[in-house]
Amino acid sequence: MFKGIVLTIIAVWFTLIVNAQTASTGMEEETNIYEKIFDAPLHLSGEQQMTFTALYQQKPILVALIFTRCSGICSPFLLELKDNLQQTDDKSFNILVISFDPRDNLEDMNNMAQKFGLENDPQWIFAVTDSIEQLNQSIGFYPIWDNETGQFDHDALLVGVNIEGYITKKLIGIRKKHDLDLLISSVNNVFSPTYRLPNKNSLFSCFNYDPKTGKNTPGLGLLFIALPAVLTVLMLVSISYFVRNKSQRMDRPYSE
Amino acid sequence: MESIKLRKITSVWILAVFVLFIVSIVLGILMRLNQGEIIKQNSVTFYTNMTTHGLTMIGIWFVAGMAAINYLMERYVKTSYTANMIALVLTVIGVLMFWATTFIGKFHAGWTFLYPLPFKVMWATWATPLFLVSLTVLGLGWLIWSISLMTQILRKYSISQAFAWQHFKKNPSVETPPFILISMITLVGVIACLLAAVVLIVLFFAEFFSNGSFVNDALLMKNLTYFFGHTIANEMLYLGLAVIYELFSEVSGTPKWKTTWYVAVAWNCTLIFILTAFFHHLYMDFVQPEGFQIIGQLASYLASLPAAGVTVFSVLIAVYRTKIKWSLTNLLFFIGVAGWVIGGLGAVIDATISNNVVLHNTLWVPAHFHTYNAMGNVLFSIAFFYWFSTQFTENNIKSEKLTMATLTILLIGGIGFLLAFYVGGADSVPRRYSTYPAEFTSAAPLAVIGAIFATIYLIAILIFFFNISKRCLKVLSSPS
């Protein structure tokens, strides 16, 4: 009976552990890295059909997720990307601009390509897919429809996919050329340093960065590095005090 | 005098360590054969083997040192059999859990399990929590054992006596045996690094269960990982040195070593500096403050030099122009000290910031730590195992001759195996690659050479195993 209870407790506890969240850290740029992108069927301009796999096997790709009716970040996002890429002569990759809005069709995408003057650039590919849900899921991209504005609430997301179909790096927001270079390096399997963005959920940082002053101040995390040594000293002194006090008590002759 | 129960449990430790050691060497040879393109392992199998090899080796040579000092400490203070037994049981459970995560769950984040790697699940979902639980079980057992031994020392010696502070002055009233001093220094370091592991595991679990509402600081986690990992890897060497200070003179038939002022100073310095030397693992972390990097380099020098200097001096004085009785035990100690010093020099070279820029994460790293482990600490422990096994069983000349031949095989295998690492490191061959790109032309041939010599080393270990385990089994089967 007792064994059964203990085993049940262990089983329940272990199930809880296994089901605990392991990947959701609230750091969107870090999710889904080194996972394979979904092999979605793509409809490309010029009535071409192609799978994602066939596309990334040709060259690594930078995937830009947009929708054509966007009145917000999509246009400046693509414009900045185009400007940054014009500064480099690197043709080792393609850029896939894909719509995550099911209402968009190939004509919409072609119009967008023309708007940005990219319709004849072979490095730029504009496409739609029927499997956007699965594709979004594999990237970790979750646009939310807002009925009031008639717009999607979404990140400006650029995803690097290498020639084997693995997501190597993600950039959220409109980013400078330096960050883009790191993304391009990563899809070409070249090492690029990575760092985690500041987050309110990170309680024990060793240093806290103040963007106003541009300076780091010591954080709570530094105390944790010293903690084991401090605990050891406390333990040493306490044990010594306890055992020596005890032995003195035992050595003392009984005088009453 | 030690009890029969202590003899028996020490025998169990020796047998367990040997069995796990042999399995781990085989895994290491398979890794080198794969790097040498003689066999084909997929990358998951390679990194699973690497994780198992690394953590098992660290664990077994730590417990080997602990079992040895526990056994010898009985000469000075009464030790707790219960704590010893708890450590044994929890070690067995912990190792089984850990091997389940790697061999069944395919967990392969390396023995350093650097954050956030364990959370980037590329293995069975249950493997990450079970791996953390296995570390908790192992750490708990070892912490209980270490605290118990430290408590027993403190029952007899005050803090200042245990650290031999009275030896800083002339004519101390009480003498602290060197064995007690080094054991105490080491146990304090062990407890500190195990507590670092406790903090680390708590933070891992906190993030694991937080559903994303709590994330750890990567810099803090890396500092804690190496506080634990680097320190325990060094402390286990010091456990071996405590055994040398106790047994070398005894088996050599020379006067017992005594604690002098310089021995006391050197070991007290080692205690302080070893706890900060781990910063040298973070030289490449651009966010680590420069001050910590400088502390890392200075502490790396200051932690190794006093203890090494005093020990080498003591060993050389003991053998220079002195008629001593050589046996396998003190020969292994002597060669082990040489291996420790050579590996230590390799480590100090790597810990120098200007060199680290070139040597970081090359085969130089496994070269130096395999030197002071495979040809240092392992030899200290095998020396103790051999000495222990001959205490209660007949020792005939034939077996003595065989063991000398075995020692020669061990040396040939060990040196060849290590040279393949050093040459690779000097040639900038990176470590932790399951297969090498064609650009590293020397990498695969060196890996094959390494595997061949490691196999020779394994043959020597197998002979030691059969020789020593036979006697340990006799101890186990003797009436209580």
| N-to-C span of chain B | 15 Å
Number of strands of chain A: 11
Whole-number mean pLDDT of chain A? 85
Q: Going across the major beta sheet of chain A, what is the strand order? A: 2-1-5-4-3-8-9
Q: In the CATH hierarchy, what is the class of chain B?
A: Mainly Alpha
Average of pLDDT of chain B: 92
Q: What ranges of chain B have pLDDT less than 50 throughout 5 or more consecutive residues?
A: none
Query: What is the fold named in CATH at topology level of chain B?
Result: Cytochrome C Oxidase, Chain A
CATH structural fold name of the largest domain in chain A: Glutaredoxin
> For the terminal residues of chain A, how far apart are their CA atoms?
52 Å
What report would you give on this structure?
The complex is a heterodimer of chains A (256) and B (480). Chain A has helices at 2-19, 52-58, 74-86, 106-115, 132-139, 177-187, 221-251, and strands at residues 41-44, 48-51, 61-66, 94-99, 124-129, 144-146, 151-153, 157-161, 167-172, 207-210, 215-218. Chain A is of the alpha+beta class. Chain A has a seven-stranded mixed beta sheet with strand order 2-1-5-4-3-8-9. In chain A, strands 6-7 form a two-stranded antiparallel sheet. In chain A, β4, α4 (106-115) and β5 (124-129) form a beta-alpha-beta unit. Chain A is elongated. Chain B has one domain: Cytochrome c oxidase-like, subunit I domain (Cytochrome C Oxidase, Chain A, Up-down Bundle), CATH 1.20.210. Helices cover 74% and strands 0% of the residues of chain B. Chain B is globular, with a radius of gyration of 22 Å. The model of chain B has no long low-confidence stretch (mean pLDDT 92). Chain A binds chain B through residues 14, 17-18, 20-27, 30, 33-34, 193, 195-196, 199, 201-207, 219, 221, 224-225, 227-229, 231-232, 235-237, 239-240, 243-244, 247, and chain B through 116, 119-122, 125-126, 128-129, 133, 147, 150-151, 154-155, 158-159, 188, 191-193, 195-196, 198-199, 203, 207-220, 223-224, 227, 275, 286-287, 289.
